[in-house]
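Hi support team,

I submitted a single chain yesterday and got back a structure, but I'm not sure I'm reading the token output correctly. Could someone confirm the output below corresponds to the sequence I sent? I've pasted both exactly as they appear in my results page.

Thanks,
R.
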Amino acid sequence: MPRRRATSALACLLAAAVLAAGCGEDSDSSTSTVGIAASVPAPSKSEFPSPEGKTLGELVKAADSHAEVVVSPAALAFFKGENRYPFGVFEPDRSQIGDAEVALYMAKVPRVKAAGGETAKNGKLKKGAVARARTEALEQPAMGPFPAAIESLATQPAYRAQTTTSDPDAATVVYTTELDFPSNGEWRIAALIKQGDEIAATLLPSAEVGEFKGVPKVGEKAPKINTPTVDDAGGDLAKITTRLPPDTQNRADYADALGKEPVVLLFATPQFCQSRVCGPVVDVAEQVKEQYGDQAAFIHMEIYNDNDPSKGVRPQVRAFRLPSEPWLFAIDRQGVIRAEVEGAFGVDRLTSVVKEVTAE
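Hi R., thanks for writing in. Yes, this is the structure output for that exact sequence:
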């Protein structure tokens, strides 16, 4: 099934990183959260090499060293124009690094033209042709730098679930930057990491811009779905949430709220999340709901049928055509999507999103 395969693809990106490595409201709310790492603004572009007159490969080769840390993307769906690009930075032992200074660069992968001998029997391009195009991308002009900010995923103690605190691999931060893709297609991504006075470099998996066209976009009407509630579960909250203890974002059916009040819809599975960020983001939403729950319907939707990954994804996930998890959609009173976030996010970002969608 395409949705399941795509979700697994993101898991493979993150798993590959592990294998390669060896495996708020206002400012007051930020200071009251707990966690190892804090949110940090993006460093200045001037702190990283200029790409002017250089190819992506030249930037990577000019670095002082190859990065020993692993930089792993945490999203799959990208579109032409500006995109939030989330990623993680890890030590070789899988432990997360919460204070790295990173900037991304990118270059377009040349379009592969099917020629004699380049196309497999099934009509798809042979791996060799694709690999050559990706190598050629390193000789294309580099764009950047795109310095990354650090978003803390910490919450106040009362909102940190057992699902999160008992998971040694649960993410504590997410790195984010804005990548402006001029066109659809495949783009090579490189990361330059400041390590003292030196710069280390590494290549990331490509971004396939425009691949997941079916994901609902900002400005579009949100799909209408039904979401299970406490009443539907007969009081057995384990049927509709894998968070421990159960979250409270299941009081309303999305279909009943859509077009009548703002909706904050979060697709995430704290227990089975492939990217290890679902637990923290459900905690984040639970905290923000405490302040804004009377202004918007907060709805948490699990990913898998019967909360069992072997049974495939739920019909609600398929309706939104999501290739990964978690996903957040902020929908206004008219049923129009005003914001969407793929991957992890912190209290400050969600608070900003909720303020925007409830401001009407």
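A quick pointer for reading it: The longest strand covers residues 198-209. Let us know if anything else looks off.

Best,
Support desk
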